């Protein structure tokens, strides 16, 4: 952590939004921000009540906030539906024929759905779901590529009051099975395949494999995307287009209690299997609506593109719910950034006149590696605002993004948040705050962060860093871990009782800007994807050759972190390169390609304390190739282990 701080501190320049940007921004001055921020903490009910009134409610809330962390209730007594807010509300206005989704497939096809088109499609699919027996509160698992049907399926599910669980298309059959089982989903929506870097991801094949082990699913709806032959099980499997043909395009939105479930999204934690993070309707709706509007300074004229996958929280909040509730035109792209060539993103920006681009540091670092010549081939003059999310952005990447993509004209919002927070928590506001590369910035309205030491006291000097916690309830916080309320408390509210512990380290400077230092728990952030070390280790020990495994992150110039696995073998198995490859493939098979270890190292023993705990701190240093092992090693049970590990590199 210390090294990262040192590297970041070297960059001291501050960048200011232009007068032109400020003039047109929703929020224009620091005074305005300060006033609203103060109000949001002093009178959260007044503040959020006012924001909520910008949305449509079948029944307005009677009480804006009831209770406190860890179990606050927001917008009590209110009834709303987010599909109604994302669609019906706009269809009743001039936005009826405005483009809602501009979609581009990886092979190059284009589809535009207006708000009216999307509204009709969503209602038809809502009727399809009803016909398949889906009722309010039932779970629907969505395992699709980045195609409009993913958005349609999500909005149709919530339209009838059911709960979606979107599983990223890059997850394997067994990861999918685990998530279906945990949610006890009744219906699975998938596709014959999806395009990725010129190849086809065999989604239906994975789904079939997953369903052998996930008996709750009664029906599977299959979108025809690639046209590949796929087996269809009579009675269970149905083609999307056939069901849609027969469905009516009118289906009333179900009025939902504000605290009724909206969706489950699985994410990795420091222990055990992935957690089903549960978000509810009212708070999530209000917060994603409002953060999208202010942080992306969204206007009706904008063409907004978030490059995340809908399988992650960024896709949920800032491709689907936030932008559509704002009536925005949303660009959606199916494939890889470097297909067929490394300028695909820049082609898309110019082709559709994208004005707001929201992407991840890992992508930016790849673009840097591929070279400036690719973006320089394109005008990029439609862009007016850039965003970053998913991991700390190093100042070098920040500056490249600012200069080469934004041409020094576009403010950058470096947005810190998590699956659990539902929406963006810390960022600069684009027309307000000076930008400091490497610093996410200030808390958004209603967010009260603090930096605590290990004992739970606010750190004396916030510049030194500590645990990042959130001290007050905010509308879009997770409400529980699906099916495991104890884990919710244990994971988020036990380390610092009464406060939400983020799992991140952070420091704060004299201007009140937060710098995120990365995870302080056993969670890796690999190319912006969250992976638990325990999950990776369990996958490794499930292989017959593996006795013990310890997984750590190693700093990586492109991915942020790379996965390094230290493995001891069972009797009768000999280390070999072939076995290394086999173990990497094994983990990719069990979890998904994003979890494939970058390096496997065999060792006779793992460094442990006398009480048997693996000393990950040492492994991290060894993985990073450090010659001098720093810090206390006196608790190490066998001092020779470290020397041997270093030799084994
Ligand atoms: C990290 C993604 C630094 C952080 C929205 C967090 C960031 C984890 C930033 C959540 C940022 C996300 N700067 N770090 N701007 N944004 N992170 O749940 O470690 O996939 O805890 O949500 O990503 O990842 P998740």
TrEMBL record:
Pfam families: ACAS_N (PF16177), AMP-binding (PF00501), AMP-binding_C (PF13193). GO terms for biological process: acetyl-CoA biosynthetic process from acetate. Acetylated. Deacetylation by the SIR2-homolog deacetylase activates the enzyme. Residues 535-613 form the AMP-binding enzyme C-terminal domain. ATP binds at residues 390-392, 414-419, 504, 519, 530. Its cofactor is Mg(2+). The keyword DNA-binding does not apply. Its EC number is 6.2.1.1. Catalyzes the conversion of acetate into acetyl-CoA (AcCoA), an essential intermediate at the junction of anabolic and catabolic pathways. AcsA undergoes a two-step reaction. In the first half reaction, AcsA combines acetate with ATP to form acetyl-adenylate (AcAMP) intermediate. In the second half reaction, it can then transfer the acetyl group from AcAMP to the sulfhydryl group of CoA, forming the product AcCoA. This is Acetyl-coenzyme A synthetase. Residues 88-474 form the AMP-dependent synthetase/ligase domain. The keyword ATP-binding applies. The modification N6-acetyllysine is found at residue 613. It comes from Thermus filiformis. GO terms for molecular function: acetate-CoA ligase activity; AMP binding; ATP binding; metal ion binding. InterPro entries: Ac_CoA_lig, ACAS_N, AMP-bd_C, AMP-bd_C_sf, AMP-binding_CS, AMP-dep_synth/lig_dom, ANL_N_sf. It catalyses: acetate + ATP + CoA = acetyl-CoA + AMP + diphosphate. Keywords: Acetylation, ATP-binding, Ligase, Magnesium, Metal-binding, Nucleotide-binding. CDD domains: ACS. Mg(2+) binds at residues 541, 543, 546. GO terms for cellular component: cytosol. The gene is acsA. Belongs to the ATP-dependent AMP-binding enzyme family.
